[in-house]
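call fold(seq) -> tokens
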Amino acid sequence: MAICIFASSRQEVFAVGERSILMLDDLSAKLQRVLKDLRGEGRLTEAHVDAAMREIRIALLEADVNFKVVKEFVACVKGKALGQEVLASLTPGQQVLKIVRDELTELLGTVNQGLIFSKTPPTVILLAGLQGSGKTTSAGKLARLLQRSGRRPLMVSVDVYRPAARDQLAIIGREIKIPVFETVSNNPFEICQQALTQAKNVGYDVLLVDTAGRLHIDQELMDELREVKRRLQPLETLLVADAMTGQDAVNSARDFHEQVGVTGVILAKMDGDTRGGAALSIQSVTGRPIKFIGVGEKYDSLEPFHPDRIASRILGMGDVLSLIEKAEEAVDKENALRMVEKIRKDSFTLEDFRDQLRQIRKLGPLDQLFKLFPNVGPLKGISGMQVDEKGLAHIEAIINSMTPRERDHYKIINGSRRKRISEGCGCTVQQVNQLLRQYDQARKMMRQMGTGVKGKRLGKFGFPF
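ret:
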């Protein structure tokens, strides 16, 4: 069954199909199950809290969270959960949920800590990390993010050891249309100075330096990093760590910070790690914040790390702010307002249905998008929906095979028309029938919402609240 998604800031309406993979999936499912059991208790006892804490401890350890971090986290939650104001509350389970959320947020770093920029450009940002951690790709993603925020970045690779390392960065630069400083020199320190001079002379306000990595931490690597840092005096030294390596990422982050001094962490490949132990451990162990997370292979898939939002996602409470930010970037405002008006007037056509599919696919992979929805209230169950990306392409092909009149007046699509449409798009008649049923259900749902909001301002997701 198709569902309709309403994003407030652009008054946008989306219709999509089914499939989802949550970040930190395993941990999220286990914690939600434990807390659901607690919320089912009318009155909490110390025995209830002890049992829940045992389950939470096991869930965190299985998620590869540092054992010292787990011990401190569980002790803190238990101490607050056994407070009189919680045990005497009319909703003790909800109180414990809030405590767990607050402690998770504290564990992850409390608030997002953005980049620091120099008052006198260029701002130098040094990227360090082990070989294979995703450092060069993350340099391109960060440059793309900076460019979209109005900055003028210049990238440079000082990795003169790994074959084709500098060529790789140059290829990335061409793909995202961001300049890369290139030189014939094979001295990393000379390359640093030349790139800095180029950035100053041409007027780039950020210099992103992709440093050399090793398969393991050694003294030669650290000595070179310290010298590069001494010469460039970067405001930010970001460690790129591979989330899929779990506690190895945490240990390497601690070693890099102790020997070189890092100001923050980019946690790469978070989309491939369903356990999430590195994300939950790294700030506590190193004392340095996670500033960005990589959530996909595309160069637009680097996100600022918001601890409070991640904590909410883990507990199934959604991440509405991130959803709205994505909508603001991808959605055309005039088209969105026009679509809301069509819904209010019950004139939403199949062509509009197709246009909304195109809009929502601009927001990124749908399995990543659905994890932003809360699993409570009127949107309950959305975060668990499954989205078939190929199915969406089939839907668009079916609609494209219709005539303009059929898209505007779907009820005229009889048996012979359905057969012609199916042959035109290479789908079966059953798939055409299924699409028309989905569209009809979406219209009925939107008609009900439109009836409820006449004369009212739509709320955050198109609902009148």
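The radius of gyration is 25 Å.
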